[in-house]
Amino acid sequence: MSSAELKELKLKTVFEIRGLTKIYDMGEVKVHALRGIDIDIFESQFVVLLGASGSGKSTLLNILGGLDVPTSGEVTYAGKPLTRFSESALTKYRRKNVGFVFQFYNLIPSLTARENVSLITEIVESPMTPDEALTLVGLYERRHHYPAQLSGGEQQRVAIAREIAKRPQVLLCDEPTGALDVKTGILVLEAVERINRELGTSTIVITHNAIIAEMADRVISLSDGQIVAIRSNQTKMAAHELAW
Amino acid sequence: MLRDLLAIKGQALAICLVIASGVAMFVMAMSASLSLADSKDIYYDRYRFADVFAHVKRAPNHLDQRLIQIPGIAQIQTRIVMDVTLNVEGMARPVTGRLISIPEHGQPNLNQLYLKRGRWIEPRQPGEVLVAESFALVHQLNPGDTVTAVINGRFQRLLIVGVALSPEYIIQIPPGHLLPDNQQFGVFWMGQRQLEGAYDMKEAFNHVSIKLLRGANDQAVIKKLDDLLEPYGSLGGYGRDRHVSDQFISDEIRQLQAMAVVAPAIFLFVASFLLNIVISRILGLQREQIGALKAFGYSNWQIGMHYLKLVFAVTLLGVLIGSVCGLWLGKSLTVMYAQFYKFPMFYFRVELWTIFLVTLLSCGAAFLGTWASLRRAADLPPAEAMRPEPPAIYRATLVERLGLGYLLPQIARMILRKLERKPLKAMLNTSGIALAIASLILGSFTLDAVTYIMDFQFRLAQRQDVTLTLLEPTHASALNNIGQLPGVMQTEPFRSVATRLRHGHHHRRVGIMGLPEQGTLFCILNSEEEMVQPPPEGLLLSDKLAQILHVGIGSVVEIEILEGNQAHFRVPVVAIIREYSGTNAYMNLQTLNGLLKEGPVISGAFVKVDTNQQDKLYQTLKETPRVAGVTIKSSALESFEGTIAENLLVMRGFNIMFAAVIAFGVVYNAARISLSEQSRELATLRVIGFSRFEVSSILLGELAILTIMAIPLGCFIGFGFAAFAIQGLDTELYRIPLIVFPQTYGYAVVTVIIAAFVSGLIVRRKIDHLDLVAVLKTKE
Question: Which DSSP letter does residue B641 get?
Fold first, then answer.
């Protein structure tokens, strides 16, 4: 048993995924996005889901985030059966427990950076202040700017600040650097890394960029809806060390 | 193009319905007004409806030889017209009957009758009459039935032999009333000789009808006619424009024509701005596609035409639906008219040009609404078009700049900033909703105004239950006799005298009403509803009469008495009051008696009746020959509620439907556009944990703000519409006050809020089905 595996034994499980299958019915053809996935995700781990487009990684993330339901199989979140949650329970789950970061930042254009973060802090219990969250991503100075006045990387960091302000258990990032150049991409990854490290938020990052996998605790490779490899990094690289 | 149309099918349908409503109202109003006008013209022409009419006290028949000499007169018909009290079986109340003489053989020259049932009167058969259909229907009178009349102080049984229609009485309005009353007033035609005998009018007449030569000047004819008839106690000639039945129908036609102008104007305006909003949004969404097409070599014209075809497809579909509905509604309205107005034949007329015109107008409105946007999109250089639109610039709203920002949750900020960013669009949407409210007010206020007039007239001003008119002016002691009739609780005398008032070269024939001091049954009220006493000296005129005579307070008016001693006096005008009907003049009773040098004489009395004994009173009155006329106030009110109010309610029903279409069209479109513009933001909020309800509140909140802003605006515009509409309703017969009851505002606002709410809910369902992932993964 490796030391990483030993460490996992001591960690609590956040997600328990068993026999997870998702089939999209596209009329004539049925697309198997996930074919019986079994895996556990542990608290405060930094996990990278690696795979080509169409490998099923986004479907998996969406199910974990309560945005999609599987065709069969089970997911439990902190011991509770996520896959059997009602619509309103899923909404509550997303509101309290999950932070979502997408490739496109999806900020509200009519609200300033700070107000975008306040959107969340107004509806959850014991959040960070918007200023704290923006400080964490290094954008406190830019808090009164509207999204249109921020660069892509800055917008993505505001999106991250918005998601972490509620102190979620899990941060799910779907290609967070996909629309960014290397330099700003790394700034975004640094923010994610810092949150994982300082707040202990379990973090799952989807990417097709294998270099990003170097900063993960665990790397899960998906192909054609199945897990093809799981590896634990003995030594993680810091985000600022990455280059692609 | 079909694909584009399908993509916006909900909105296209909403716009379609708005256009269809405007078109339907136009087609309905045009076809109904044409049908009514046509039926009327044909009727008048075939049955030789006269152009000029005059009443005299009594004139010899040979006068007709001199009358026919008046240049411009084609034909005349002299006759006897008398109002009598009738006793109709099964009817406790006495009824006013109008007996009109007709030749024993064949039709009169003018105002000929259409015999609907039964037969013509037989010569020398006493008491045979024809009865007007509307009265026969209400009282279920058929040939063979009889009614009793008090004719010149004697009872006579009238035998109904036929049921007839006359172009003079397409609608039966009792003398001195504003509204038709088929219950209380009936027209009968009786043989000339019999009426001559009954009223001691051998070789004499008291009414003349005149047909003019084509192109004759009716005013000149009336002037000469008046000069000739003057010595015979003429009450003055008048043209069709002051003939109550014709006036009533002409007013209806005018109102339909006004509706044909106003309604499409409102609806097409709304449709054109809705099209503008929808097309602008489609062009925004397809901006890159347009750029690509242009890059491939499509011309501006081809691209413009593509979208224009879409616009015209929606418009023409609306015109088609509207035309079909409009024809159906027009037909239904015509059927309703055919029941209300008595024509021998009622034509439903549709003119193709009206459909053609409304098609042209609709397409014009659609083109005007979208042309600028299409032009802008087509003119955009391809390279620029293929780049996404620059991001929207937002800024803090007025509320926040005022330092109240801390009060606003983020969602409210989103809504307000979005609205403030495109104020013109918000304003247009608000005006659209406001127009829905305004059109509801416009369609409903007439009922308010008429109800107000009825209330003013019959509850505040006229507090008597019955008005008795004596056969002849009588010594005031008759009041004691009246007071002793069964059930009479209170009496108040009046003296009414036919006069001509003259001021400079302006003159008008009116009856001056002499009223006692401190009267409480028949009150003169000013527009503040305060009681005004008839002044001890001088005249009190209604504002309309003052306007006709060009007099003000202090002007001296010449009174020419047209009965009895035919005396002339000069009297100052001491007060002018606002009245809603007629052209009236009032004086103190004693002063009037004094002027007439007649001692205490009255023409009749206002009476307050004990309801428990009213049937007994009516029975006595029917048997009292000296009472020439009995007017019962409650039957005028019942008749109003039974006919006019009912028709107005039907119109209100149509109105609600159409206004709801506007409200729905505007709100639904605003909601759909807003959803399309914000689907990304709404999906984001759902993903980060906002509930469906919270997310919907952004969209519904925006609609609510637009609707709330529209409420005062709509009420204001509606009031303006009403003010504009009453301009056309200011006639000598009546004036419509600018009165809109709070309930009408309330009902307009509630109707529109419901329509807005329902359309909001329909769009809300779309939010519930937002595909969160798909929305978020696409690039803006």
Answer: I
Q: What are phi and psi of A76, to 5 degrees?
A: -110, 145
Return the bridge partners of B208, or none: B54, B78
Query: How does residue A202 score in pLDDT terms, banded at 50, 70 and 90?
Result: very high
Contact B209, B52 (CB under 8 A): yes
Quick check: A91 and B413 CB within 8 A?
no
Cβ separation A88–B691 shorter than 8 A: yes
Helix (H) or strand (E) holding A40: strand A29-42
d(CA B727, CA B278): 37
Instruction: Dump pLDDT digits (tens) for B290-320.
Output: 888 888 888 888 888 888 898 999 999 999 9
**Residues in A touching B417 (Cβ below 8 Å):** 110-111
Residues of A in contact with B421 (CB under 8 A): 110
Closest CA in chain B for residue A121: B410
CA-CA-CA-CA torsion sign (B732, B738, B739, B740): positive
- Tokens 């088929």 sit on residue: B182
On whether the CB atoms of residues B181 and B639 are closer than 8 A, the answer is yes
B407/chain A closest Cα distance in angstroms: 12
Q: Which helix (H) or strand (E) holds B85?
A: strand B81-87
Residue type, B747: Y
Q: How many CB atoms lie within 10 A of CB B648?
A: 18
Contact A118 B417 (CB under 8 A): no
Mark B372-399 as b/e (b = at least 16 C-beta within 10 Å). ebbeebbebebeebbeeeeeeebebbee
Structure tokens given for B189:
């035609």
Q: Over 80: is that where the pLDDT of B176 sits?
A: no
Answer yes or no: are the C-beta atoms of B207 and B63 closer than 8 Å.
no
Per DSSP bridges, beta strands B146-151 and B154-165 are antiparallel
Which one-letter DSSP state was computed for residue B404?
A: I
B623 against A100, higher pLDDT: A100
Query: Strand pairing partners for B466?
Result: B607, B632
User: Helices B287-296 and B300-340: crossing angle, nearest 10°?
Assistant: 130
* Cα–chain center distance at B401: 49
Res. B151 pLDDT band, cuts 50 70 90: confident
Q: Do B421 and A110 touch (CB under 8 A)?
A: yes
Interface residue of B684, B695, B780 to substitute, partner A, most A CBs within 10 Å: B684
Query: pLDDT of B507-535, one tens digit each?
Result: 888 889 999 988 888 888 877 788 888 88
pLDDT at B680: 84
Q: Give the DSSP letter of residue B780.
A: -
Please compute Rg for chain B using Cα positions: 33
Sheet holding B236-239, edge to edge: B73-79, B204-212, B52-60, B236-239
State the nearest Cα–Cα gap between B409 and chain A, in angstroms: 8
Contact B346, B334 (CB under 8 A): yes
Q: What is the DSSP letter of B533?
A: P
In angstroms, the separation between the Cα of residue A170 and the nearest Cα of chain B is: 12
A106/B394 Cβ within 8 A: no
Locate the chain A residue with the closest alpha carbon to B775: A106
pTM for the predicted model, two decimal places: 0.81
Residue B292 CB neighbours (<10 A) = 14
Question: Are A95 and B688 inside 8 Å of each other by CB?
Answer: yes
Separation CA B563–CA B558 (nearest Å): 15
CA dist B447 and B362 (Å) reads 30
CB B19 within 8 A of CB B267: yes
φ, ψ of residue B508 to 5 degrees: the values are -155, 140
